[in-house]
Structures are given as C-alpha cells and as structure tokens.
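Page 42, continued from yesterday. The earlier attempt failed because a stray header line got pasted into the input along with the sequence. Redoing it now with the clean sequence only.
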Amino acid sequence: MVDASVSTSAETAEQSLDELLRASHEASPAELPEALDRYTAAMHLGHAVVYLIDLQQRLLIPLDEDVSRLDLDDSLAGFAYRTSTVRVKEDNGGGLDVWLPLMNGAERLGVLKLRMDSLDGLTLCRCRTLASLLSLVITSKRTSIDTFARRTRTRTMELPTEMVRAFLPPRSIGTGRVISTAVLEPAYELGGDAFDHSFTEDVLHATILDAMGHDLASGLTTSVAMAGSRNARRTGADLAELVTTVDEALAKWLPDQFCTGVFLRLHMPSGALRWSNCGHPTPLVIRRQRLLDKELERTSEPPLGLPMRLSEAPRRIHETALEPGDRILLYTDGVVESRDAGGEQFGLERFADHIIRSTAAGENAPEVLRLLIHAILDHGHSQLSDDATILMIEWQPPDP
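This time it went through. Structure tokens are written below.
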C-alpha cells in the first residue's frame, strides 16, 4: 500500500515540474529566474542561482547581475564545475549550500546553487533533475537569447571571431565510448582557427582547421571550409569525397585563400580510425601515458584549396586501429609555438607532458584541456603570436 503523504508529495512534484517545463518554453530571459524561483519554493529547494562559465573558463558568472562572480580555481562552485560532482557546504547558521554541475552530455555549462535547510536522498534526486532540466533549457535557448552570450563574455569580441564562433559546435560532446573536447584561444581575437565534431550513428567525426592570416578573410576561409565539410557529411559523403568538397568550395568561392586541416572519423565500437591530413601538424597519440608523436605521421598533403591548382591526384585517406584509453590530439601551430619573455617555445614535449600529468591526476578530458590552454596562455603571458586550438578525442570502449 502506498503512503498517502508520499503519493501527494510525488503528485505535487510532478505538477510543479510540469509547470516549470511549460514556463521555460514561454519565458523571456527576465522571466526565467521567476519561474525557477516558483518551482524551488514549491519544492522546498530554497533560492536558486544559475552560474554560467565564461568564454575562457576562468569565472563562473551568475545570470543575476546583483550576485558576485566566482573564481573557478578558488571556490567550491568551481570544484563542482571542474570535477562534474555535487558539492555541499554547511554555513555557520546550519543551512546548506548545494552546488550542482550544469551539463549537457559532456559539455560543461556552469553550476546551479541551491540554498536549503536540509538535504535527503529524495531532495538530492530532485536537485539533480532540476540541474539537468536547466542544462537542456540553456542549451536550447542560447542560440536565440543573447543574454547568455553577453553574461559569459568579459570583453568585446572582434568581428572575425564572432563570425567563426557562430559556426562552432559545443566545446565537448560524448557518448559512453568516446569524448571529443576542444579549446581555442585567443578567445576574443581569433583569426582563422576552428574545430568541429559530431556524431552519425556509431561514428565520431572531428575536424580542425587553420586558415592563413588573422583577418576577416581568414575567418571566411575557415567558415567556408567548415560549411563544406558539414554539407558533405550530412549528405553521406565518405571521407575522401568530403575533403574534395572542401577543396572545391575554397577553390570556387575563395580562390586566393587556403587553410590546413585534419579530418577524421572514428568508428566508436571498434576503434577504427580513418583520417586525411591536409598540410596540418601531425595528430598526436597518447597511449598508456606515453606520447607517440609519429604514430599518425604520413606523407604530407597540400593545404585545403590548393590541390585543384597543384595536382590531379586524389586525397589519401589513412587508416589505423586505436587501443582502449588512447587519446588523439589535433592541434594548431600556435599551441607549441607560444613563447615566454625569453623566447622559449611552449614546445611539443611540454604540451604532451601536461596532458599526461593531468590524466594521471584523474582529471576528466574537458578539464585536462582547460588546464592545458591556461598553461599555454600563462607561458606566453596571455600574448599569443598565433591562434592556439586543441581538439582531444578519448576512446574508452566499455569492457566486453
């Protein structure tokens, strides 16, 4: 027999959640916090504050402008974000601050703070449900609500960067078998770097691009290359056809421009990897905490947009098999060429060492790259001579 109070409580919770869902579809940016407060009050979850991560992943910025920002590396909220775990803190008055990560799959959006008097298993479950719902709401609305973009920027973005970022996918995507995650700097003055990743059925598609120059033409080149790649991918083109489509698009629409890039496809169940390297730095493999910098090295190919003028030969597609736990790193020149005040480059060894050390310390893949890009910026005193973009793929199939 079901206890009446439990049944009523469950019914009330279901109705309140339904009201929040319906309100989220219709609420303006100003009305969304009000709808959230109505729900948390009805569910006795206390006051809620949503914090979003800033563009460079250093600050947690509240949607409420009257609430202070939090440093990501020096706060309990930041710990919840960095580790993707729930954190609870008791204050001197006996109340509880509950911090929950806001995540859309593998992508880290920010954190949710709830203030309450007590916490039990059922309440924690409802807190997690609320965090999941808010993550979906933010993800679905951020392309049409500029409030989210405005709150997560700490300074003005240059026009070429605005154009390229409009094309970028989420920083991180993932399944039970693979995570693909990326970072790129300088966040507000990008030139021609970009990345892309997506899934079709059981295949991960990933791309990194580096157009020559640091102006609007560079951004246009990257944007055309990415659009060509997506167009081919979404029509079911194989990898060779996809690269040819990008070559032809650049030759037709931007004949004076070119860019380098790597296009790869990973069959997630088997670990079979196929790729084409078009004049770009060789992708790296980290296997069992060791750097294999020659594992994916093959004969150099011309940059994208040039084969139509230089050669009739088709693009070569390479194949290999990954081992469980392998990490594949695609990167642009600016990553290893960042220099300190004495002129010393960040370098390939230091680059790989940061990945290996962070992984050994138990950091998740997105956090590994966040720490790495900050190390690169700190090495160059936040002054990069070239764009620095990294895309990392971690393949870890379930145990048979």
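Notes: The CA atoms of residues 264 and 275 lie 4 Å apart.
Reminder to self: strip header lines before submitting.
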